[in-house]
Design goal:
- Keywords: Transferase, Ubl conjugation pathway.
- It is an enzyme of class 2 (transferase).
- It catalyses: S-ubiquitinyl-[E2 ubiquitin-conjugating enzyme]-L-cysteine + [acceptor protein]-L-lysine = [E2 ubiquitin-conjugating enzyme]-L-cysteine + N(6)-ubiquitinyl-[acceptor protein]-L-lysine.
- It is built from 48 helices and ten strands.
- By secondary structure, the protein is mostly helical.
- The strands form four sheets. A four-stranded mixed β-sheet has the order 7-8-10-9, covered by helices on one side. Strands 1-2 form a two-stranded parallel ribbon. Strands 3-4 form a two-stranded antiparallel ribbon.
- The protein is elongated.
- The termini are far apart.
């Protein structure tokens, strides 16, 4: 009994689901039980299903075969009927193969198409075609051209194209017949749709080994009957063509219809209608390149709007993938397409044919007359079209960009007043009214969404295009425009925008520029190259080059975000353009002050309390990433000052520009490989640069648009950067004594401590400070940043007595500077710097030529080793002077030296790899020339504004005369050409001739003549102070950083930050000594000019630190020098120490102090 709580004694049912036998005495079997039953059932079901599928498949096969067999029998019967009718049917009485009637011909065509198979019935098709051609050409021609016949001819042409696609081997006679019938039928068909047109030309372009004359006839056949055929013609134009084919097409095409068809074809993204050719069609870049070249060859020189639109779209789509400025490769079209274009995916070169066609777009007359020929019907669409075309030319031909801008600036060649429409004003009027400009101008927080908008509307694309071309033209205009013309007071045609509207433009640029830098991490999203193979990006794989690592290949494939989806216009390009223009307007405003003082600031977009720590942290992060950039450094290129970069503002170049002529086949391969490698390095560098911008947005703003941040904040950041650099270099021991101690106990690189410290110690003779410093410290290089020790000795080599407040570094630096930068100093070998009319310094432009003349007089030729060594030594001295100025900036030591603004501008525009690539290097302008030579400046302005009939009276050629030689009384005159052949070229009344002369002269005087000296000085300066730090300041701010603030001396601040020694030390009562109180009272009552004399008497500079006297290094100090009131105050300028006797009378203190200050007494009297 099995009792349970239910009270029932019935045994419960047990179900075994384990598959194991429950009877321990039963025999075990591998098969059996429920699992085997389930498996068996499943197998039975699978077998039955397989059997059913086999039956169904066999049924389908039988059904298909029966159908196929029936069709074969039917087709055979139809073929027999068709053949019988062709052989025994009624014929025209003429007996020449003409059908008896159009109805008979139409019936035969329809019968033929019932069973037509391209391979089996091709000869029947050819036979019918020839008979129908004879029929249509006979008396029944009129009845074979209307009603059902157009559709019948179209079906006949489709049958011919199918037969041509199906051909497996050449048959010249049959191929000729088919092509003849095809040409006939497509002409008779009349209008055809795009799909048929594309299929037609795809078939013809795929044919090989066919009769040329018949093929050419077929190619041009549809062009006279329908405009839709031009959509298909684009397929042909996407392939390399020979000169004969181009001549044939040129005589047959309708240029307007072709350009309009390209617009239709572009809208469909080059899609093809046939499946057979879908996988074998050309890559888009390669296709568009041939299409562009062939289009220009067929329609070139036209100013039709549809042609401009087609060229603009094609050229813009190739801007990032084709190197239009490279020298052409001398190859035939077919060879070039097979051997080069099929193996390169980006950075494509051009062969001679493509180069000739595409560079023909850079035509002065056509560009100058763009507005004239379209002015009659200009609206927003017209402005967008012209803007798109002009912008595309600028993007694709950077070496000719200044020429293009100049031609647009000069305007139409016609002298009629109605046609004289300034391009800059035209595009500004179109810019300021468009919606995009107004939105960004009103709200800086709306910019990000506009830049990231996807998809972008057509109106936004048009607005961006107009804005971009205006920014390009206005940037150029500021380079050639003098201040009077900019302010609206110049004579002649005024291309500048009204001065009252410049503020609106600056606001727009500020809002746009801020977002481009501060939100770089959101904008720098990259787009993967769809379906691209990294190995095809370089020719290296075809020449045995090792494949790039994966991370580098990824960097190559990444592309920056494009602006509104416009081909070739990237966010990086917009950033550079915005940065350059903002800098140019800010520089102009720094001189003429036409905007409110706070108009440039954008502090409302920053948390200024954490701004400085944030910038310092970004600088540290940036250093870590930049350390990885060493392996991708570009090959060193000649300095921009030494060699121009082509165009109107470049230095002298060889005739023919930088193209270098055509490249042969072998040289073309080698040059292309180098170009590809350089392009890959540039892309990796650009990718890393975008990453740096993302991790350091505040730093990017400081280096590219520093005027967004107050000057005092930037000075604090500069000092923080220096502090950070000192800590890194000195292993945390910023104090000079602690650093020396650390070097004694833990010298780096195993160098003996004494030798290490001895390199930083020098014995300096009075009156020979610069020569001794150069001899003993030049080899230090950037190690001059570390603390140095100076021992001054007199003419008898006796060490001077004095107070050494951690070394007399300040006294040494100020002595070297006062000697080397004084043009009249007799204790230096060369006049390294000279003064302008306002006593501001700049490098002596003739010092190298003066030295060469001197050496020649001693019998040394320029190319002899001794002469080159002397010149090299002179440039090293300039480099050392740059290090000395850098040392003062690095240590925070103010020096009394003032540089010319154009020279200081070169410091701030040397600031590393800024986004404004074309603006991060100094560009000479006529406005800077005013700071060099006022007379030359006014003379060039007179030439610029002179009436045309008076220009020849100047009698100028493109030459300049230099007076060189060490002897002032026996100078030599050297004539130099400003352009190749300039001695034989007169400056004419033509505006371009005058502007070219003015800008070439400005370049030579400001940049070219002193290029080597300036380059050497900036090289030394940058070895001490990072160029990116200097880029935070403009030229006026740099002068303040060097010599101190020009504001009135703040006596209260100076008193608060003064240290006292000796008797003057403040005691526990906190009261100042009576003599100290008298001193501060006297100083407070002195005029500011006298206060500056006192400050210079103590510190050697008449200006105080910008951030207050708390930043003065060393601090301003006063100590007693006895109680004799007959003594004069003396100083130790090396430690900013005033030694003040204990005067008891205010009048006596005033008299003695001013007497000492005006006599120049100092350290030597103490």
């Amino acid at each position: 009994m099995y009792q349970s709580f239910t009270g029932s004694g019935r045994r419960p049912r047990q179900i075994n689901l384990s598959g194991r036998p429950t009877n321990p005495f039963a025999s075990s079997s591998p098969v059996g039980g429920p699992p085997s039953a389930i498996a068996s059932a499943q197998q039975d079901r699978a077998n039955r299903q397989q059997h059913r599928e086999r039956l169904q498949a066999s049924s389908r096969i039988q059904r298909v075969w029966r159908g196929h067999s029936a069709r074969r029998k039917t087709f055979k019967a139809w073929r027999q009927i068709w053949d019988d009718l062709e052989e025994h049917g009624p014929k025209a009485s003429a007996g020449n193969g003409v059908y008896a009637s159009p109805e008979d011909a139409l019936k035969q065509l329809r019968r033929l198409l019932l069973f037509y198979q391209p391979k089996e019935d091709v000869r029947r098709l050819a036979w019918y075609g020839m008979r129908q051609m004879a029929t249509a050409g006979g008396g029944g021609a009129a009845s074979c051209s209307d009603g059902p016949w157009p559709e019948a001819y179209l079906r006949l042409s489709r049958a011919c194209t199918a037969a041509l696609r199906a051909r497996t081997s050449p048959d010249l006679e049959l191929d000729r017949t088919l092509l003849t019938v095809l040409a006939f039928s497509i002409r008779k068909a009349g209008n055809i749709d795009q799909q048929d047109a594309i299929s037609y030309y795809e078939t013809l372009t795929s044919l090989k080994d066919v009769p040329t004359d018949a093929l050419q006839t077929a190619l041009v056949a549809p062009l006279q009957s329908t405009s839709q055929a031009y959509v298909g013609l684009a397929v042909l134009l996407e392939t390399p063509l020979d000169s004969g084919m181009l001549k044939l097409l040129h005589s047959a095409i309708d240029a307007v219809a072709l350009c309009e068809a390209l617009g239709i074809q572009r809208s469909t993204d080059f899609q093809r209608s046939t499946t057979a050719n879908l996988n074998s069609r050309d890559p888009p870049i390669r296709s568009r390149l041939w299409l562009l070249g062939n289009l220009i060859a067929l329609v070139g020189g036209s100013n039709n709007a549809s042609y401009i639109s087609a060229v603009s779209r094609l050229l813009g789509s190739l801007a990032e993938d084709v190197d239009f400025d490279s020298a052409p490769i001398d190859m035939e079209n077919l060879t070039f397409d097979r051997d080069i274009l099929t193996k390169v995916a980006t950075g494509l070169p051009l062969n001679a044919y493509l180069h000739e066609q595409i560079t023909s777009l850079i035509n002065q007359d056509s560009i100058r007359n763009l507005l004239t020929k379209n002015a009659a019907s200009q609206d927003n669409d017209g402005a967008q079209l012209l803007a798109s075309y002009a912008l595309t030319l600028l993007r694709c031909f950077p070496r000719r960009a200044d020429d293009i801008r100049m031609w647009l600036y000069l305007g139409p060649t016609s002298t009629e007043p109605s046609n004289n429409l300034p391009a800059t004003r035209y595009f500004w009027d179109a810019t300021k009214v468009n919606t995009l400009f107004r939105t960004i101008w009103q709200n800086s927080r709306s910019v990000l969404s506009l830049l990231k908008a996807s998809p972008t509307t057509a109106q936004q694309k048009d607005d961006w295009t107009v804005i971009m071309v205006f920014l390009e033209l206005y940037t150029f205009l500021l380079k050639i425009m003098d201040d009077e013309e900019f302010m609206g007071s110049g004579s002649g045609r005024n291309n500048a925008i009204p001065i009252g509207e410049v503020g609106d433009l600056v606001t727009f640029l500020k809002n746009l520029g801020f977002t481009l830098y501060f939100n770089a991490s959101e904008l720098n999203s990259t787009v993967d190259a769809a379906g691209s193979d990294a190995s095809t990006l370089s020719l290296g794989r075809h020449f045995g080059k090792t494949a790039e690592p994966a991370f580098k290949a990824a960097a190559i494939e990444s592309k920056p975000l494009t602006l509104a989806g416009l081909p070739g216009l990237t966010i990086d390009y917009l950033k550079g353009l915005t940065t350059g223009l903002l800098r140019a307007i800010y520089e102009r405003d720094s001189r003429r002050h036409f905007l409110p003082a706070n108009h440039w600031l954008m502090t409302d977009r920053f948390d200024m309390t954490s701004f400085i720590p944030g910038v310092v942290a970004e600088e540290e992060s940036r250093h870590l990433v930049q350390d990885q950039d060493d392996d991708d450094k570009d090959d060193p290129e000649s300095d921009e000052d030494l060699e121009g970069s082509g165009g109107l503002f470049a230095g002298p170049t060889l005739p023919g520009g930088g193209g270098g002529g055509r490249r042969g086949t072998a040289a073309g391969y080698a040059s292309l490989l180098r170009s590809q490698n350089a392009r890959e390095r540039a892309q990796r560098k650009a990718s890393r640069k975008r990453y740096l911008e993302s991790v350091a947005p505040r730093l990017e703003i400081l280096q590219n648009m520093p005027f967004f941040i107050p000057f005092t904040t930037r000075v604090e950041i500069f000092r923080q950067f220096v502090q950070l650099d000192q800590e890194k270099r000195r292993n945390g021991y910023v104090d000079p004594d602690l650093w020396r101690q650390s070097m004694m106990f833990a010298p780096p690189n195993g160098m003996p401590p004494r030798d290490l410290l001895a390199r930083h110690h020098a014995k300096i003779r009075r009156k020979n400070e610069f020569a001794d410093a150069f001899e003993q410290f030049y080899e230090l290089g950037s190690d001059l940043k570390e603390p140095i020790q100076i021992t001054f000795v007199d003419e008898f080599d006796i060490q001077e007595a004095g107070i050494d407040g951690g070394g007399v570094t300040k006294e040494f630096l100020t002595s070297v500077i006062s000697q080397a930068f004084d043009p009249a100093n007799e204790n230096i070998e060369h006049a390294y710097f000279v003064e302008n009319d306002r006593h501001l310094l700049y490098p002596n432009p003739t010092v190298i030529e003066d030295l060469k003349v001197k050496l020649r007089s001693m019998g040394l030729r320029d190319n002899q080793p001794g002469s080159r060594a002397e010149v090299r030594n002179l440039l090293q001295q300039y480099e050392f002077l740059g290090r000395i100025i850098g040392k003062c900036l690095y240590e925070g030591i103010l020096v009394d030296v003032s540089f010319a603004g154009f020279f200081l501008k070169k410091w701030s525009l040397t600031g590393g790899a800024n986004s404004a690539s074309m603006e991060s290097g100094y560009r000479a302008t006529i406005n800077d020339l005013r700071e060099l030579d006022e007379g030359l400046y006014r003379g060039l302005l007179a030439l610029k504004n002179a009436p045309a009939e008076q220009v020849e009276d100047f009698g100028l050629t493109f030459t300049v005369d230099d007076l060189v030689g060490p002897d002032e009384d026996h100078k030599q005159v050297i004539e130099r050409e400003l352009i190749p052949g300039g001695a034989n070229k007169l400056v004419t009344a033509d505006s371009q001739s005058r502007l070219t002369y003015i800008n070439r002269m400005s370049w030579y005087r400001l940049q070219g003549q002193s290029a080597q000296q300036t380059h050497a000085f900036l090289k030394g300066l940058s070895s001490i102070v990072q160029p990116s730090w200097l880029s935070m300041f403009n030229q006026a701010e740099l002068q303040t950083l060097i010599g101190g603030a020009a504001a009135e001396i703040n006596v209260v601040d100076l008193r608060r930050n003064t240290l006292y020694g000796g008797t003057y030390v403040i005691g526990d009562d906190g009261q100042e000594h009576p003599s100290i109180q008298l001193f501060w009272h006297v100083l407070a009552t002195l005029p500011d000019a006298e206060r500056r004399k006192v400050l210079k008497f103590v510190t050697s500079t008449p200006r105080g630190p910008l951030l207050g006297f708390g930043q003065l290094n060393p601090r301003f100090s006063i100590r007693d020098s006895g109680s004799d009131e007959n003594r004069y105050p003396t100083t130790s300028t090396c430690v900013n120490l005033l030694k003040l006797p204990m005067y008891r009378s205010e009048e006596t203190l005033r008299q003695k102090l001013l007497a000492a200050v005006n006599s120049g007494a100092g350290f030597d009297l103490s």
